[in-house]
Amino acid sequence: MKIIEPSTSKEFKKYYNLRYEVLRKPWGQPMGSERDKREEISIHRMIVDENSGDVLAVGRLQFNSIHEAQIRYMAVADDLQGKGLGSQIISALEDVARGKGIQQIILSARENALQFYKNNGYEIVKKTHLLFGNIQHWLMEKELS
What's the longest Cα–Cα distance across the chain? Predict the structure, then answer.
């Protein structure tokens, strides 16, 4: 396994497909809903299986200000959750943020992922929105050193 930044159309197709399969399809959302208008100006990381070429985990970092970045669209293949891949993606994105002088990272966590983010140093700020009418989200933050 290795962490890469997707760069080819084939890599991005696999990257977005995992986001769709994990984050949108289970709730009946249409293909394309796993993307937004900030894709081209964001930083993307994914873990690929070097033998099969399969994408195992993905995440995106967007810059909200010169001091704050946001992690979005974190997804790990269902059968690989709990094996540390998500933490590797977070670490890679935090390294990019530090390199750009970012002091704080925020994210919007689904309720079932709160402990995962806490384990990675994030703290709950407040309860926020309800996605698709049934997925509670929480604003979380982490100060980078």
Answer: 42
Half-sphere exposure of 89 (CA within 13 A, CB side): 31
What torsion, rounded to 10 degrees, do the Cα atoms 106, 18, 13, 6 define? Answer: 50
Look up tokens 């796993």; give the residue.
34
What region does 32 belong to: left with phi over 0, alpha with psi -120 to 50, or beta? Answer: left
Q: Measure the CA–CA gap between 142 and 145, rounded to whole angstroms.
A: 10
Nearest C-alpha neighbor of 47 from the set 85, 73, 78, 11: 85
Spatial contact of 104 and 65, defined as CB atoms under 8 Å apart: no
Dump pLDDT digits (tens) for 51-110: 999 999 999 999 999 999 999 999 999 999 999 999 999 999 999 999 999 999 999 999
Assess contact for 142 and 104: CB atoms under 8 A. yes
Decide: 1 and 46 in contact? Cβ < 8 Å. Answer: no
CA 18 to mean position of chain CA atoms? 11
pTM over 0.90: yes
